[in-house]
Amino acid sequence: MPVHKLPLREAVWLVFSKDLLCEFRNRYAISALIMFALVTLSSISMTIGAVMLSDELTAVLLWIIIFFCAMAGLSRAFVQEQEAGTLFTLQIYLQSQAVIFGKMLFNIVLLMGLTVFIILLFILFLNVDFSLWKIFFVILVCGDIGIGAVATLTAAMVARAQGQHCLFTVLTFPILLPQFLGAIHATATVLGGNMPSVSQFIFMAGYDAVIISGSYILFEYLWYD
Amino acid sequence: MNNNVVVQLINVGKKYGEKQLFQGINQVIKPGQCLAITGPNGSGKSTLLKMIAGVSKPSTGLICIGCGDRFFQHEESVGYMGMVSPEIVFYHAMTGIENLVFLSRCRGVACSLQYASELCATVGLNEYSNKQLSMYSTGMKQRLKFAIMLAIQPSLWLLDEPSSNLDGKGKEIMGVIIDTALKQMATVIVATNECWEMEYASAQITLA
Amino acid sequence: MIKMGLFCGLMAVIYAVFFIVPPAQGLGNFVRIAFFHIPVAWVSVLAFLLSAYWATQYLRKREMKYDWKSAASARLGFLFCVLATISGAVFAKLTWGVYWNWDPRQISIFILLLIYGAYMTLRSAIEEEEQKAKISAVYSLLSFVTVPFLIFIIPRFYFSLHPEPIINHLGRVDMDNVMLYVLLLTLGVCTALFWGLLSSSVSNVQKRHLANPIHSNDKDKVKI
User: Fold this and answer.
1) Could you tell me the pTM of the whole model?
2) Are B81 and B17 in contact (CB under 8 A)?
């Protein structure tokens, strides 16, 4: 009976593609998230009419919508597995790092896809001009990685608790706040046509790195008894 | 290549909050041997299996799983083990073959679609192998669990009530699979209350 | 004995704050609120650090006493944090004219309040003791890890929609020697008060736990 050990990279990809396949077949999260983003942004656009929003307000609005979409859709990574009963199956068959990084990758990709959609809506409804779009893209990626990483870890925490969806937002927000504020500040700067300082990027990338390494260490405690 | 896996239970006990489930379990299970864990409902049979699987930790004592003269680290032992349990649930959005391929690949076994079909046929799931799990009966799901065991060929078999939900034909297939595994020097641990399943066992632990 | 000492210390501090400390330049008698606000804010941060430390100990050693200490520290920390927020807001109203204007220090204390609140909500949502201990320990550590980022982002984050704080926080102003000594005294007494409350809270939990003979375990006896 041979023993095969799957390298981490392949195991992560396996979890990611499995989640992608199941989501593609069910479309639970993605349809709700797209509708949420559409409804929120269109209602704001409708009510403010032709009024131009300042750079700061636009930045705040963008990240608040991304954040609430994340809170609506990213907890399913673990909560759905727990509710379906498949969490135990994953515990038996996979190592903990594969699960956390696979699901983190899935959440980040999902959020990035949603962010692109939200940006398109912003251009459509609010006539926002993204002239420094390359820098803006970097900010989006850093921010989304931060939100996705924290949300995946807190989803693992609430999977076995009561009142999961409410608790999820309550737990995620304080942890995410530094990255959230940093992303808003950087976005506001970029929308004004200026380059954010290098320290801003170091800050955001540093935050992502710390959260990802923290997840690597802490998730094992959550995964096994 | 056979990996002769030895399982040692040293003074193992489990306590949930205020309730002492069991304590003082001592046993050695060698390759080619089958251990039966029996006891009334709620006595902790499934819990003990989960502790051997590494998903849960014992409150007291030690569980050592090793090969030759070397004991495995915690996550290392997972690669040697396969489990059939009522708590294992498959992904309803995927078909039987997709579940099989996914779980085999999790263990590093490259399972082609054709081989997966053959395994499904062996356990009697021919027509349903390409249907989504949401359409499976409990008996079919149980057969699929055995198909996965055949795919990953573990050295340590952990079976929690293996014949539950199986009809006569299913039980026959299951018997052949376990028999073959024992002949290939796998280490088998069964948690059961069925007399005929206990016949495979050379040793028995009863949890009060 | 210790309680007598604590009581004396508290009396000494109240006397000192109201009668020994002279009115500050510009702030006048309002400065006395700062002698309550600063120690209480300091203790809420200390409680957070201690909670995270004991959370680490729990994850490493899996002894329930560390979870009790961590949770008790968080509960007290939350209480002190609420007091710090309220006293800070009152001070702000009296000196700057508004209760809340998202001044950097106010942002930090508010986030600490959110973290404590989230921690306690998490604990109340999980029933099984060991799961509760494990998951809240992980959350405690996760929030601890993000604190350095807060310290960096907060001073840089000035929204142009909000006014800048007019007066520097008392801690940055050069202080009168008398004020400094009284402040250190209040810090000491407040910390001692916190420690006393913590010990009594933990020993209460320990007594409740040991009253049940099934899980009497020498390891769980607590010495603070």
Assistant:
1) 0.88
2) no
